[in-house]
Write a structure and sequence with these properties.
By secondary structure, this protein is of the alpha+beta class. It has one domain: Beta Polymerase, domain 2, CATH 3.30.460.10. It is 48% helix and 19% strand. Strands 1-2-5-4-3 form a five-stranded mixed β-sheet, with helices on both faces. Helix 4 (99-113) packs across helix 6 and helix 5 (115-131) packs antiparallel against helix 6. 26% of the residues are buried. Residues 1-13 have low confidence and may be disordered.
Length: 165
């Protein structure tokens, strides 16, 4: 269902056309990209670009698709719908071949491949959502230890299986 919703909200062809040559790849990431994982009904889309610093190559196209640049960080740019409109999609623009891109794809693929880790993460998310239900930043921070530990394990899994983004 998550992949269907992703295509409905941000069709890959439409997104690629809007971003033109700037988009090296577009991936469905985040909790909705892992079938059966507890998730908010928001699709996280990762757009990898050849030059994150060349905002002129992707910001206007992303904004013309109805999204607003909300956060500018070293590793990514974060876009979402404007205030007062439904938040069905978040777009994270990152450097192709960079750590942000790799970590999000690795985490997603590891959860898809390891049902026991998928289940642990889902349970943790439910527990934390009950505690941090009105504090998104607190909820996100509370998950970070699990995510970092899982990325360490996923790195070993990537080497053992030959995984690559």
């Amino acid at each position: 269902m998550a992949d269907t919703l992703y295509r409905d909200v941000v069709g890959q062809d439409k997104a690629l056309a809007a971003l033109g040559a700037a988009a090296v790849r577009i991936d469905h990431v985040g909790s909705t990209s892992v079938p059966g994982l507890a998730a908010k009904p928001v699709i996280d889309v990762q757009v990898s670009v050849s030059d994150l610093g060349d905002e002129e190559s992707y910001v206007p196209a992303t904004e013309s698709a109805g999204l607003v640049l909300r956060t500018r960080e070293d590793a990514r740019r974060f876009f979402r719908p404007p205030p007062g409109t439904p938040r069905e999609v978040h777009v994270h623009v990152c450097q192709a071949g960079g750590g942000w891109e790799r970590d999000h794809l690795l985490f997603r693929d590891y959860l898809r491949a390891r049902p026991e880790v998928h289940a642990q993460y889902g349970e943790l998310k439910r527990e934390l959502a009950a505690v941090w239900h009105d504090d998104r930043a607190g909820y996100t921070e509370a998950k970070s230890g699990f995510i970092l530990d899982t990325l360490d394990d996923a790195g070993q899994w990537a080497v053992a299986t030959g995984w690559h983004p």
